[in-house]
Design goal:
By secondary structure, the protein is α+β, with helices and mostly antiparallel strands. It is 44% helix and 12% strand. The chain has two domains: 18-118, Phosphorylase Kinase, domain 1, CATH 3.30.200; 131-366, Aminoglycoside phosphotransferase (APH), C-terminal lobe (Aminoglycoside 3'-phosphotransferase, Chain: A, domain 2). It has helices spanning 3-14, 63-83, 88-91, 131-147, 166-179, 189-196, 204-210, 251-262, 280-294, 300-304, 306-326, 339-356, 358-366; strands at 21-26, 34-40, 48-54, 105-106, 112-117, 122-123, 217-219, 228-231, 237-240, 247-249. The strands form three sheets. The chain has a five-stranded antiparallel sheet with strand order 1-2-3-5-4, covered by helices on one side. Strand 4 and strand 5 form a beta hairpin. Helix 8 (251-262) packs across helix 11 (306-326). The chain is globular, with a radius of gyration of 21 Å.
C-alpha cells in the first residue's frame, strides 16, 4: 500500500463517522489544504458525507492555534444561530473531533487533519454570474459579521501574522525595490511610482484603528464568493466556509476584498487594461446586501470607511503581486513570464478607477449612515 493511501486509512480510522466508511475521494479545487469527501453508509439510511482536510503545514505553522480559532468561532456561531431559530447544521460549520478528543488528528507523518459534516443541499460558485448571486454572498458575509458582533476578537490568534497590515506590505515592497535582486525595477517604474504616490493611503485604516475610530472585529479575510455555500433551491447564502484566516481585523477588510474580487469583470491578469473597471452597480448592490446582513451592527464610521476597504484591499493585493515580481515570483504561482506584473497592473487600474469614481462610492455608503 502506498504511503499516501496508508496515511489516509490511518486518518479515517481516527474519526468516528457514525457509520462504515465506503469511500474517500479528493474534492474541490483549493490550492492550500488537501481536501477529501468521505462517504459513509448508515444502516437503513441514506449515505452521509463529511469533509476531511489535511491542513497545509506550509501555510499554517500552528494548527493548534488555527483550530482553536475555528472551534471558538463555529461554536459561537452555532449558539447565535439557534438563538435566532436558525438551522445550526446548515448555517454553521461544525468541527468533528477525532476519537482522542483533540481538536484535530496528527498522523504518523505529522500531518494535521480535521473533519466537518458535509452541508447537503448547497452549491459553491466560483464566479458571480448575476448581480443577485453577488448580493447573496454579501448578505451572507454581512450576517457573519452580525452573528459574531459580540465575539471577543482579541482572543483570536493571528494565523497569518500581519496579513492585512498594509503598512507592513508597503515596507516589504520598498525593501524589494531597494534590493532589486533580479534587475526588474527598470521594467516597472510606473507601477513603483503608483505605489509610492499612495504611501499615505496605506495608513488610513490602521490610523483609524489606532485612534479608536474603528473597532477590532472578527474578520474572515478571504471573502470570495466560493467561500459561501448557497442554498441549491433559494440561491441564498447559507454557510460561510474556509475559516482558516478568521482573525482579528477591520470589517472594511472583508467588505473590500469582496468588492476587489467580485465588482469587476476582468481576468486577474488581464493585459488589456481598458477592460478593467469597477462596476459601480455591483458595488451598490453588494453594499446594500452586506449592510442588510449586518443588521445595524456596524458603526456609522465603519460604514463611512467601506470605500476605503475596497481601495486598500485592491492596492494591497497589487503591492503583493508587484513585490513578488520583484523578488522572482516566489509566492504566487505563475504560468507565464511577467504574469505577476500583469496582475499588479490590473489591481492598480482598478484602484485608479475607484479613485475616479470616489464621490459615487461615498454617496452610496452615505445613504446607509443613520
Amino acid at each position: 500500500m502506498a504511503q499516501a493511501e496508508q496515511t489516509l486509512q490511518e486518518v479515517l480510522g481516527a474519526f468516528d463517522f457514525g457509520a462504515p466508511v465506503v469511500g474517500a475521494i479528493r474534492y474541490g479545487c483549493g490550492h492550500i489544504n488537501d481536501t477529501f469527501v468521505v462517504h459513509t453508509q448508515p444502516e437503513n439510511a441514506c449515505c452521509r458525507r463529511f469533509i476531511l482536510q489535511r491542513m497545509s503545514s506550509a501555510a499554517f505553522k500552528r494548527p493548534d492555534q488555527l483550530m482553536d480559532n475555528i472551534i471558538g468561532v463555529t461554536e459561537f456561531l452555532g449558539r447565535e444561530i439557534e438563538k435566532h431559530n436558525g438551522d445550526r447544521s446548515r448555517e454553521a460549520m461544525e468541527v468533528i473531533r477525532p476519537k482522542n478528543g483533540e481538536p484535530y488528528y496528527t498522523d504518523s507523518q505529522e500531518g494535521a487533519w480535521r473533519v466537518y459534516p458535509f452541508v447537503e443541499g448547497t452549491v459553491c460558485h466560483q464566479a458571480a454570474d448575476t448581480p443577485e448571486l453577488f448580493a447573496a454572498s454579501g448578505r451572507a458575509f454581512g450576517r457573519f459579521q452580525r452573528l459574531l458582533a459580540d465575539y471577543p476578537a482579541d482572543t483570536l490568534y493571528e494565523t497569518i501574522p500581519r496579513f492585512h497590515d498594509t503598512e507592513d506590505r508597503l515596507a516589504k515592497f520598498k525593501a524589494a525595490v531597494a534590493a532589486d535582486k533580479l534587475g526588474r525595477v527598470k521594467d516597472c517604474q510606473p507601477e513603483i511610482d503608483f505605489v509610492l504616490a499612495r504611501e499615505k493611503d496605506c495608513s488610513v485604516a490602521l490610523n483609524a484603528l489606532r485612534e479608536g475610530k474603528l473597532p477590532l472585529r472578527v474578520t474572515h479575510n478571504d471573502t470570495k464568493l466560493n467561500n459561501v455555500l448557497m442554498d441549491d433551491k433559494t440561491g441564498e447564502g447559507m454557510c460561510i466556509i474556509d475559516l482558516d484566516t478568521v482573525m482579528p481585523g477591520l470589517v472594511l477588510y472583508d467588505f473590500g476584498d469582496s468588492i476587489r474580487f467580485g465588482a469587476n469583470h476582468s481576468a486577474e491578469d488581464e493585459t488589456d487594461l481598458s477592460k478593467v473597471n469597477l462596476d459601480v452597480d455591483l458595488f451598490s448592490a453588494y453594499t446594500a446586501a452586506f449592510l442588510e446582513g449586518t443588521g445595524g451592527s456596524l458603526t456609522n464610521t465603519e460604514i463611512e470607511y467601506l470605500p476605503w476597504g475596497a481601495k486598500l484591499m485592491t492596492l494591497e493585493c497589487g503591492i503583493r503581486f508587484l513585490t513578488d515580481y520583484l523578488e522572482g515570483d516566489t509566492y504566487f504561482h505563475i504560468s507565464r513570464e511577467r504574469q505577476n506584473l500583469d496582475r499588479c497592473r490590473t489591481q492598480f487600474k482598478l484602484v485608479s478607477d475607484m479613485e475616479e469614481r470616489w464621490p459615487e462610492l461615498e454617496a452610496i455608503v452615505r445613504g446607509y449612515i443613520k
